[in-house]
Amino acid sequence: MAVSLTRAVFPASRPNDARLGPNKPERLGQILLQHSLITSAQLTKALDRHRRTRTPLGQVLVDMGFVTPDLILETLSAQVGFPSTRVNAYTVDPRAASVLPEKVARQHFAFPLIKVGNTLMLAVSGPKDFKALDDLRFAAGCRIQLILALEEEIEAALDRYYGEVTWMPQETSSPVDAVVLEAATVQVPVTNEEVERSAIHIVESLIARAVGDGASDIHIEPMASGTRVRFRVDGAITQMAGLPGDSAPAVTSRIKVLAGMDIAEHRQPQDGRFSATIGNRHLDLRTSTYPGMYGEKVVLRLLDQSALRLQLDSLGLHADILGQFREVTHHNEGIILITGPTGSGKTSTLYAALSEIVETGKNIMTVEDPVEYSIPGITQGQTNNRAGFTFAKGLRAILRQDPDVIMVGEIRDSETLETAIEASLTGHLVLSTAHTNSAISTITRFQEMGTEAYVLASSVISILSQRLVRRICATCKKAVAAPPGAQELFGDAAPTVLYRGAGCKDCRGTGFRGRTGIYEMVRMNDELRQLIIEHAPEIKMLEAARRSGMRSLREECLVKVAAGDTTIEEAVRITHERS
User: Fold this and answer.
1) Is residue 433 within a helix (H) or strand (E), and if so which, with residue range?
2) Residue 402: left if φ>0, alpha if ψ -120 to 50, beta else—which one?
3) Pick from 499, 435, 442, 431: which is nearest to 471 by CA?
4) N or C, which end of the chain is more exposed by having fewer CB within 10 Å?
C-alpha cells in the first residue's frame, strides 16, 4: 500500500504539434544532411539509436560525436528564422520560472529564460501555433518572445527549475499503519509550520536540481560549521550550497518519513527507499542514514529508469569485445561474471545483456538486492534478509522454476557461489557480479572462497571487468600537445596530439560531460582451465589471457584517450598497470 504524501506534479504532455517541425527526428536529420554536416551513414546510425533508446536525435548525434550542440542550433536557427540560445545555469534567471505556471510550461514545452520589462523570453524547440502563443501570453500576463533551444536542454531546465514532486514511499517490511503511527506520534524537531514547509520545499528542490544536473547521488552532511550538500556527477563529488542550520534536522526527518525509516532513531544507521516523479521522469531513490558527530548524514541514490541504457552497443564496449560478449550471452550454460568496484556500471551491463536475451523468448529469472530497474518479460525477485530470503535461497528456489537464464545480483559468499556453479553445471546460463579489481583476480578470489578448482574451471565461461571514465565535453573539446609522460604510457605508438575540455557552460567548467565504459574480457580456454586446476599464480593466468587476446583496462582506456574520448589523466586515475 503506497501513501501519497504531498504535491501532485503536472503531466509533461508534449504533443508533437507543439514541437518544432524541423526538430522532428527525420526532418532534423534531413536538414543536417542537406547542409553536408553529417553523412547518410551517420544519419542511419543515429536514427537507429534514436529509435531504440528514445533519446532525442540531436542528443544522439552529439553523443556519437557527429555534430556539436551549437552546430545543430545554428542550422535550425537559419532554417526557421529564430534566434537561438543554449539553456543552462548561465542563461537562466531562476526567478523567471515563477512568471509562467509549470502546467502551461510543460504543456507547450516552453521554458522562461528571463523577463525584461513586459517581455518574457521563452526557450522553445520550435515555432508555436496561435493557440499555444495565446495560452502562453495569457498565463504569463505579458508579451512573449520565442528563442530556439535544444529539446533536451529545455527538458532538463523544466526538471531543474520547477521543483514540484510527487512522493510515493515504498512499502516496508513493517505494516503501513505502523509507519503512519510513527510519523503521527513521534516528536519531530520542528518548531513551527514555516520550518516544516521549508523542509518539504528543500527536499523537492534538491532532488529536482540533482535530476537536472545529472547527479547519481545526493549527500547531506552535517558539519561543525553547518550542513553541506554535495552531488555526485559523472563519478565526481560536486559541492553545492549548504542548508540553513535550523532546517537541517527537519530535512533529515522529512527524508526519513518518505523512506519509511524510524524518525525517532538517531543512533543506528537506517536504509529505506521511495519514489518520485519529476516532470515526465520516474525515479527510485535508495536512502541511507549514518550517525555522525554532528548529526545524521543522509545519502540518496537516484535511479532513473529512463536514463538506463539497455543496449550493449551504447555502453562503450570495443567492437571485438562487444561481439565476444554477445556470443557468450547466447550460450545455454555456464557462468558469466561482471566485475568491478561499486559505481563502475556493472548493473547497467547486466541489464543490457538481459534486455537482449529476453528477445529470444527464454525464461529469465533474477534475484537482486535490490531490484534497481524493471525489465519487461523477466521475473525479478528481491532479497529480504529479515525474512531469510538470501541470494543463495533465492537461487535455489529459482532452480525449481524451470529457468533458462538466471541473474544473481552479486556473488558475496561461498554458499551463493556454490549454488551458482551447481546451476551452471545443470544446464543454465548464470549471470552475476563480483567486487574484484580485474578479470583474472576474480578467479583467485573464488578459489580463496573454497571452490574446487576443477569445478570453477568447468563452470565459468567468461569474465568481464569494467570501469567508468569521464568523457571530454564535446562543446569545449580542444587538441593539445601530448605531455612528455605519454611516451611512457603509450610506448612507441604515443600520439603527438591529445584532447581535453577547456571548460564551458555545458560542462560547468569541468571539461567533462558524461561517462563511458572501459572493459577487459577473459574468455575461458583450455590453457586457462588447466592453469586454474593447477592453482597457478595470478601472473601465469594473466600471461595466458594476454596470449588469447585480452587487453587490460589500462590499454583499453589508452585507446579511448588516443581517440579523444577521455584524457590521459583519467586513464591514470581510473586504471593501474599490472606487470
Assistant:
1) strand 429-434
2) left
3) 499
4) C
Query: 259 is written with which cell numbers?
Result: 523512506
Q: Which of 558, 556, 569 is nearest to 519 (CA)?
A: 556
Which H or E element spans position 324? helix 319-329
Using the CB atoms, write b or e for 33-42: b if 16+ within 10 Å. Answer: eeeebbeeeb
Cα–Cα distance for residue pair 111/154, rounded to 1 Å: 6
292-336 tens-digit pLDDT: 988 899 999 998 876 666 788 888 898 899 999 999 999 999 999
Q: Is the pLDDT of residue 168 over 70?
A: no
Nearest to 227 by CA among 153, 292, 145: 292
**CA–CA dist 504, 67 (Å, integer):** 17
Report the C-alpha dihedral over residues 217, 223, 228, 234, rounded to 10 degrees.
Answer: -30
Mean predicted lDDT score pLDDT of the chain: 82
pLDDT of residue 76: 76
Give the alpha-carbon dihedral of 529, 535, 540, 544, to 10 degrees.
Answer: 0
Q: Has this prediction a pTM greater than 0.70?
A: no
Q: Average pLDDT in the 444-450 region?
A: 90
Kind plus residue range of the DSSP H or E element containing 124: strand 119-124
Quote the cell numbers at residue 497.
Answer: 596530439
Q: How many residues does the chain have?
A: 579
Q: Is the peptide bond before 370 cis (omega within 30 degrees of 0)?
A: yes
Q: What is the dihedral of CA 353, 358, 361, 367, to 10 degrees?
A: 100
Note whether 446 and 339 are within 8 A (CB): no
Q: Encode pLDDT of 350-404 as tens digits.
A: 999 999 999 899 999 999 888 888 888 999 998 887 788 888 899 999 999 999 9
Torsion sign (Cα): 27, 33, 38, 43: positive
Q: Can you tell me the distance from the alpha carbon of 25 to that of 33, in angstroms, rounded to the nearest whole number?
A: 12
CB 302 within 8 A of CB 215: yes
Q: How many CB atoms lie within 10 A of CB 429?
A: 24
Torsion of CA 249, 255, 256, 258, to 10 degrees: 150
Q: At 486, list the grid cell.
A: 605519454
Measure CA 342 to chain center. Answer: 13
Alpha helix ranges (H) inside 186-269:
193-213, 248-258
| Residues in a beta bridge with 145 | 121
3-state secondary structure (DSSP) of residue 90: coil
Cβ-contact 467, 374 below 8 angstroms: no
- Going from the C-alpha of 235 to that of each of 19, 215, 468, 553, the distances in angstroms are 34, 9, 8, 18
* Element holding 322 (H helix, E strand): helix 319-329
